[in-house]
Write a structure and sequence with these properties.
This protein is of the alpha/beta class. The chain has six helices and eight strands. Strands 2-1-3-6-4-5 form a six-stranded mixed sheet, sandwiched between helices. Strands 7-8 form a two-stranded antiparallel ribbon. Strand 7 and strand 8 form a beta hairpin.
């Protein structure tokens, strides 16, 4: 079977702690999981069914690959290097935040290789589409662009309001996803609440179109599939959602 001409980026699927931060942390495994895109690799990694999958083991809590290199504390507490989680939980012991030397080391070891992998993929492969894949909380937290406490759609697709892909392409993808996941098209929003993050904005239409995908965590990170106490997941549910994602892309490329 031929591979689909798409590259998939999963920048927030990791939970690993960089060794460079040993002895500095006060954050729990539960906080790290929920600050990430939990189980995003299992949801979106299509292996050899697509041209390439770019992913990381490193948790976004420590190195956020979907931020600019210039987004650093203290001016940008939710930047590439963070001082607290999405929910305001402190990451580091007081006085143990990464200094400039540690920040540079984290950039060199984790941030730059990911972005070089994206750049190589776009140069080496004959791609027709790239997807930057994420998950979103069902209810908007305080730090989010949408109103706090607002219920979110099942999916949000974004292309920076038409800058990173054509309107026709993102609308077709939305239609194919509604079909494959068995949901109404009104449950998939476009550019609301998200418009496209750093990766989508940086690489979109340069020259390959990029679309950011956000899946509502209510599809899997709830009972009966997820046990909040043990942080364990029903992997059959993840496999089913992964197949639906694969089906959506097969329908998309059959119609493009």
């Amino acid at each position: 079977m031929s591979r689909l001409p798409v590259a998939i980026s999963i920048p927030h699927g990791g939970t690993a702690i960089p060794a460079e931060l040993d002895g500095r942390l006060c954050i729990s495994p539960c906080d790290i999981l929920h600050d990430a895109d939990p189980f995003a690799v299992q949801l979106y990694d299509l292996g050899d069914r697509v041209s390439r999958v770019i992913k990381t083991e490193t948790a976004r809590t420590f190195v956020d690959l979907n931020r600019s290199l210039h987004d650093l504390p203290p001016d940008h507490p939710d930047g590439m290097i963070k001082t607290s989680t999405f929910h305001g939980r402190p990451i580091y012991l007081e006085g143990m935040e990464p200094d400039e030397g540690v920040q540079r080391r984290l950039m060199e070891l984790y941030y730059m290789p990911y972005h070089r992998a994206i750049q190589r993929s776009m140069m080496e492969l004959d791609l027709q589409l790239c997807l930057d894949c994420h998950t979103m909380e069902a209810i908007a937290p305080k730090i989010s662009p949408d109103a706090t406490g607002k219920k979110r759609p099942v999916f949000c697709l974004s292309n920076k309001d038409g800058r990173t892909s054509s309107s026709e392409m993102i609308e077709l993808l939305a239609s194919c996803m509604a079909e494959s996941y068995g949901i109404d098209s009104t449950q998939i929003s476009i550019n609301n609440p998200f418009h496209g993050g750093h990766i989508t904005t940086t690489y979109g239409n340069n020259p390959v179109p990029w679309i950011q995908v956000e899946m509502n965590r209510n599809l899997y990170l709830t009972e009966p599939w997820f046990d909040a106490e043990s942080l364990s997941m029903d992997h059959t549910r993840l496999q089913d959602l992964n197949k639906q994602f694969s089906d959506a892309l097969n329908i998309f490329f059959a119609r493009i």
